[in-house]
Every structure is written in structure tokens, then in C-alpha cells.
Write a structure and sequence with these properties.
Its EC number is 3.5.2.7. The protein is an alpha/beta fold. It contains 18 helices and 16 strands. It has 2 domains: about 5-20 and about 35-80 and about 385-425, Urease, subunit C, domain 1 (Roll), CATH 2.30.40; about 85-375, Metal-dependent hydrolases (TIM Barrel), CATH 3.20.20.140. The model is unreliable at about 430-435 (pLDDT under 50).
Length: about 425
């Protein structure tokens, strides 16, 4: 067995499995009581996959003749699955910090949008930005997400609104997939807004007749790599019929449906997503009771974004009702120029305080359920043999400190590990050694 294994994380005070029986997602009951091992160890192979997890004494005996490239003593610490951010917009140029003052003064999202701000401000700057600039800023943003414990991130296009810029964004995302040690699920979001000079109907036709065929061609040739299709289904943007047409066309070319719905106005987006077999729908602040029932029946994940509701002063998503009704509840940061947050620990904290989720439910929503929302819960989102070795190690004897310490993750996270590779080690923790 010598030389076969890459990493041993030894003798953690707590090791949070999240799932212990190969579950693809957790509903309310399962999310409420996550399996946690005490004095446990974890072995990751050189192939980046988890080989074994269990009590420290038992694993020491099982691997007594093995050698490891790296051994980390996790005594007094906790091991958790790498966090999964199920909704981000990380590729863009231009700074919208000035809009924050407008929002604080009472301007609504749509008022800023109609005044030439919002998405269209970012679109103009993103269209003009060189591809290399977009890559460098994406690289920096993904690094900051990773420092906060995210090891799998959904990344959207959507600030181009024309074919040329959307493809530029998707090339940047593919390059990041290939060169940065973080998991990426790539989403085409060309229907993020209606381009200036077009009607919603014209934009819909352009996406279906021009964008999607070109995406399919470039996907087949390996120049881009797209997993999901997204539409901003909203009053004054893309109506239900346009949304249906775009999502169905994307599904027909093999993309997962994962879209914005029922955010600012009740649009019956949830009912549409359930009907089309959507993998996930995001936002849902204005979802109907019927929509919640339909999503539960269709096993369509609800990606809730507590940062957006908080920053835009929107009605909070009905997390408790969704959990009670049997919806698969996931979380995302919605990182974008309008909701500038890299930190899934802070997202989980807000979900607990503002949406009344328990800490167990929030962790499940930011791991296995967020992975499910991206169609990746067979490989990500829990610590189980055969899954990818994506984990974080925190310097506390209780895992809940990751959520409890609002904004404290910079000192709390000791290691971030992706596919068994240490991609971040906290060298500055110093005095933050006991709780």
C-alpha cells in the first residue's frame, strides 16, 4: 500500500459527513440531523477522491502500512465538506459601488435599471473589457470565494447580451475551469436582460436562432463548456412565454435548466420550471403556494439567495414553508455587482437569522443540496468514499462556528482542499486558536 495515498486528515474533533448513505439531496428531516463523527479521520487518494472516512483509531489500523504524501493533524479541529455556491455572476467589468448609495436612498432595483444603471451599466463595461482583463478579475474573485471555503461554484455569463460578448465570457469561464483549482459549473445566461434596441420577443428569437446554435457548435468543438441555461423571468424582462421558449431550446441541446424566477413579481416561474423539468430555480421571493408544491413534486431545487433579499430589502424567501412542503432547499451567494458577497459562511448565517433555517439545514443547503442544484451531488457536497476530496478544516471543536461567527471565516478556516490538494493554508491565524 506504500505510496498509494495523497492525504490523511487525522483525528478531527468533529467530521461532518452531511450524507452517510449516498443521498442525492436532503429534505427537511434529513437536513435537520446531519451525521457527525467524533475523533475521525479522512483519507484522500492521489486521484483526488475520498478513499476512506471513519474513526481515527480504526483508520490508523486499516492504513497502518500505508504512506501518505501529506498528513495533517486535525486534533481539536473540524472537517466539513467544501462549500458549494449554487448561484454567482463573477465575470464582469465596471464598478457599481455608486448604486449602493442610490439603493440606500430608497431607489428600487427596477428604478436603477430604468435609469441606465444595473445590468446595462455592467453590460457596457463588460462588452468593452479585453478577455484577459475579465479572466484576471474572475481569477481574483474565485480565489476570494475559495478563501471563504467554496470549492464548487456556479458561474454565469449574462453581461454581454450579444453573441460576441456572451461567448467571450464563456471562454473566460472555460479557461478558469481548466486553470484554477476550484470546481466550476458553467451557465449561459444570455437572457439576463433585454438588450437596448430590442424587444423581449426579438431578443428571444436572437437567442434561439443565433446564440444557442453557436453555443452548440463551440461546445462540440471544445472551445466552450456549458452546463446550464438561465433566463431572468421577470416583469419587464422576459415573460413566461419567452422564458419557456428559451429554456426548452436549451434543454433540447442538452443543457440543465437553472434559472431566475419569481424574484420581484409573482410570475409563475416555479410552476413553469417544474413543468419543464428544471434542475433548479433561484430567488423565489415571490413564489406562489402552487409553485412551491410543484417544485417539491418535481424535485426541482430552490436556490435561495439571502444576500440579495438583504441588500435589496426584498421580502425574504419562504425557506421554512419550502422545507415543510418537501422542497430541496439550496443556497447561493448571488455574487454580482449588485450583491457583492464572496462568503458562503455569511450566506448561511443570513439564511439562519433572516430565513429561520437551522444551522444544520443551512449547511446541507450549502453543500449537498447546492451540489444537487448543479447536477453534481453524485461527486460533491458530502464526505463519502468515492466522492471528490473537497473539504475544509476549521480551527474549532464545534463545526457550527463556521456559521455562528458572522464574518469570522478569515481567521477560522485553516485549510481549503480541492481534489485532495491544499489550495489554501491559513498562515496568519495566530491568536485565533481557541473558542
Amino acid at each position: 500500500m506504500a505510496g498509494e495515498y495523497g492525504l490523511l486528515l487525522d483525528n478531527a474533533e468533529q467530521l461532518v459527513l452531511v450524507c452517510g448513505r449516498g443521498e442525492k439531496y436532503l429534505l427537511q428531516e434529513g437536513a435537520g440531523r446531519l451525521p457527525v463523527l467524533r475523533h475521525a479521520s479522512l483519507v484522500v487518494g492521489r486521484d483526488g477522491l475520498i478513499k476512506a472516512v471513519g474513526q481515527a483509531d480504526a483508520l490508523r489500523s486499516q492504513f497502518s502500512g500505508a504512506s501518505f504524501d501529506r498528513v495533517i493533524d486535525c486534533s481539536g479541529k473540524c472537517i466539513l465538506p467544501g462549500l458549494v455556491d449554487a448561484h454567482t455572476h463573477p465575470v464582469w467589468a465596471g464598478d457599481r459601488v455608486h448604486e449602493f448609495a442610490m439603493k440606500l436612498a430608497g431607489a428600487s432595483y427596477m428604478e436603477i435599471h430604468e435609469a441606465g444603471g444595473g445590468i446595462h451599466f455592467t453590460v457596457e463595461h463588460t462588452r468593452n473589457a479585453p478577455e484577459e482583463e475579465l479572466f484576471k478579475t474572475l481569477e481574483h474573485r474565485l480565489e476570494r470565494m475559495r478563501l471563504a471555503g467554496s470549492t464548487l461554484v456556479e458561474c454565469k455569463s449574462g453581461y454581454g447580451l450579444n453573441l460576441e460578448t456572451e461567448l467571450k465570457m464563456l471562454r473566460v469561464i472555460k479557461r478558469a475551469k481548466q486553470s484554477i483549482d476550484i470546481g466550476i459549473s458553467s451557465t449561459y445566461c444570455g437572457a439576463h436582460s433585454v438588450p437596448k434596441g430590442k424587444t423581449a420577443s426579438e431578443a428571444t428569437d436572437d437567442i434561439i436562432n443565433n446564440h444557442l446554435p453557436k453555443l452548440k457548435e463551440l461546445q462540440l468543438s471544445g472551445k466552450i463548456d456549458v452546463d446550464n441555461i438561465d433566463v431572468f423571468c421577470e416583469k419587464g424582462v422576459f415573460d413566461l412565454d419567452s422564458t419557456r421558449r428559451i429554456l426548452q431550446a436549451g434543454k433540447d441541446m442538452g443543457l440543465q435548466i437553472n434559472f431566475h424566477g419569481d424574484e420581484l413579481h409573482p410570475m409563475k416561474s416555479a410552476e413553469l420550471g417544474a413543468e419543464l423539468g428544471a434542475q433548479a430555480i433561484s430567488h423565489l421571493e415571490e413564489v406562489s403556494d402552487e409553485g412551491i408544491t410543484a417544485m417539491a413534486r418535481a424535485k426541482c431545487a430552490a436556490v435561495l439567495l439571502p444576500t440579495t433579499a438583504y441588500m435589496l430589502r426584498l421580502k425574504q424567501p419562504q425557506a421554512r414553508k419550502m422545507l415543510k412542503e418537501g422542497v430541496i432547499v439550496a443556497l447561493g451567494s448571488d455574487f454580482n455587482p449588485n450583491a457583492y458577497c464572496f462568503s458562503m459562511p455569511m450566506v448561511m448565517h443570513l439564511a439562519c437569522v433572516n430565513m429561520k433555517m437551522s444551522m444544520n439545514e443551512a449547511l446541507a443547503a450549502a453543500t449537498i443540496n447546492a451540489a444537487y442544484a448543479l447536477g453534481k451531488s453524485d461527486t460533491h457536497g458530502s464526505i463519502e468514499p468515492g466522492k471528490q476530496g473537497d473539504v475544509i478544516v476549521i480551527n474549532s471543536t464545534r463545526w457550527e462556528h463556521l456559521i455562528y461567527q458572522f464574518g469570522g471565516h478569515q481567521a477560522l478556516i485553516d485549510y481549503v482542499i480541492v481534489r485532495g490538494k491544499i489550495v489554501y493554508k491559513n498562515e496568519k491565524r495566530g491568536i485565533m486558536s481557541s473558542y
